[in-house]
From TrEMBL:
Name of the protein this chain belongs to: Monocarboxylate transporter
One Gene Ontology cellular component annotation held by this UniProt entry: plasma membrane
Matching SUPFAM superfamilies: MFS general substrate transporter
Region (Disordered): 238-257
InterPro entries for this protein: MFS, MFS_trans_sf, Proton-linked_MCT
Ranges annotated as spanning the membrane: 12-32, 52-75, 82-101, 107-125, 137-159, 165-189, 279-303, 315-337, 344-362, 368-388, 409-428, 434-455
Organism: Strongylocentrotus purpuratus (Purple sea urchin)
Length: 465
């Protein structure tokens, strides 16, 4: 597909860019998992329910993806490095000040600012990775996803110990200090020195050109109107035919204006990535559902264990087990990529295993059984965490559309994250059972498998044609 059309950059700085995204995802994954430790305390502190608190605590990751289009616009008025460093500061300061929030709504606004700051750092790094690794994007991006895994099993343990030693305020202060590392991630961003970025990212200019192409339709409309006005002025010299000709020209001008407006709207509509890349549109539901399950599982794993009667200090170690098994899952995925295994088949097989683990998760409440389920789910979920960007790269047929696809792809991820956390909390508030919540995850994983199979069949047919 598209990733075979270009070569990777030879600039050695590309490894620094990989490390910067690794650290940023370490921060993001660590924050998401740490909120799983903090969520019971937040519910008690603000006398709220799990649905509302889950929605609020999902805002950092969600807003990071939702506000990427704003980051795209800001890249036109400031350098990626400056934007990345400002984003790093905006990521950390609200978390440090979070204990000062007097209500759950103020806390939500502060965490939304954190998400916006992470977007300002995440988007330029993501575009830089595509610039440096145009050919091996999937493999290189998967390497950076180890940051989420490491953050998932290290940061929650740190925060849990911080809560015991320093309390609620100290826990947030230390979490904010970890988030400050995003400033360094933004400081190292720079373009490759061995190629012209204007040529690497033609869509940035191409989009502007495509919008300009529509301009003749508007100018044609103006010309017709001008001719209509001139003709009307001339016909006024003839008193007998003035009324009929004026009516005729008015209807002609109105019809021309309507046709030009329709043409302009159609041109703008078809310029969207979802219309230009039908296979990317086909796989979009799987991306949303995968993020739905992944984000909610990360948030509710510890509360699920506590509901089963496990102490919080022991329940936190389920994160560690899941994180260590997630590292194994990432390595396994990279090995399979090295041997040219099909991504779609890998994800289908992984979805099947993880769905079974979610269906049987409530069979037993013993710590050994829950640890085994965390081991399986950590391995499979962290492989599936590679699905959004991998399937985006595979489904986009034109390499020039890759930078344009990054922004809507992150938007799909954000939709999955916020709906997963909020709806999972709502389901628990209604059923008072995390076992039911995990069964819902299993059903959604089955739907992802069906979507992947449909994509594979259509993609194979297109390849033969």
């Amino acid at each position: 597909m598209a990733e075979t059309m270009l070569e990777d950059s030879t600039d050695s700085w590309k490894y620094v860019i990989l490390l910067s995204k690794f650290v940023l995802l370490f921060v993001d994954g660590g924050i998401a998992k740490s909120f799983g430790v903090l969520i019971p305390g937040v519910v008690v502190r603000y006398d709220s329910d799990f649905g509302t608190v889950a929605l609020v605590l999902s805002l950092p990751s969600t807003m990071m993806y939702f506000t990427v289009p704003i980051a795209t616009l800001l890249m036109k008025v400031m350098t990626p490095r400056t934007m990345g460093m400002i984003g790093g500061l905006l990521s950390a300061v609200p978390i440090i000040c979070a204990p000062l929030a007097q209500s759950i709504y103020i806390l939500g606004m502060m965490l939304a600012v954190t998400g916006f700051g992470m977007a300002l750092t995440f988007f330029p790094i993501m575009v830089s990775i595509n610039d440096y690794f145009a050919k091996s994007f999937i493999f290189s991006n998967t390497l950076t996803l180890f940051g989420t895994t490491c953050g998932a099993f290290l940061v929650p343990v740190i925060i849990e110990r911080s809560l015991e030693a320093y309390g609620y305020n100290g826990g947030f202060l230390i979490l904010g200090g970890i988030a400050l590392h995003a400033v360094v991630c933004g400081a190292v961003i720079r373009p490759p020195r061995d190629r012209n970025i204007d040529n690497v990212r033609p869509s940035a200019e191409g989009e502007g050109d495509s919008l300009i192409v529509v301009q003749p339709a508007e100018s044609t409309e103006i010309d017709v109107l001008a001719v209509g006005e001139t003709s009307t002025a001339l016909t006024e010299l003839n008193e007998q035919d003035s009324k009929s000709k004026n009516d005729t020209m008015a209807r002609s001008s109105s019809s021309t204006s309507w046709r030009c407006s329709c043409d302009s709207f159609t041109s703008t509509l078809t310029s969207f990535i979802f219309f230009q890349e039908p296979y990317y549109t086909l796989i979009a539901p799987a991306i949303i559902l995968q993020c739905f399950v992944m984000a909610a599982w990360m948030l509710f794993l510890v509360p699920h264990a506590e509901e089963a009667g496990i102490e919080r200090s022991n329940a936190v170690f389920l994160f560690t087990i899941a994180g260590i098994s997630g590292i194994f899952g990432r390595i396994l995925y990279l090995v399979l990529l090295h041997f040219k295994c099909d991504n779609t088949i890998i994800f289908c097989f992984t979805c099947t295993i993880s769905a079974i683990s979610c269906f049987i998760d409530s069979v037993s409440s013993s710590y050994i059984f829950l640890a085994a389920m965390a081991l399986i789910q950590g391995t499979t979920f962290f492989i599936l965490d590679c699905l959004p960007h991998a399937m985006m790269k595979l489904s986009v047929r034109n390499e020039a559309n890759i930078p344009r696809a990054i922004s809507p792809n992150l938007l799909l991820v954000g939709i999955g994250v916020i709906t997963g956390d909020a709806l999972s909390g709502y389901i628990y508030d209604v059923t008072s059972s995390f076992g039911t919540v995990f069964v819902v995850y299993g059903a959604l994983l089955v739907l992802i498998t069906v979507n992947l199979v449909i994509f594979k069949l259509n993609f194979r047919r297109w390849s033969r044609e």
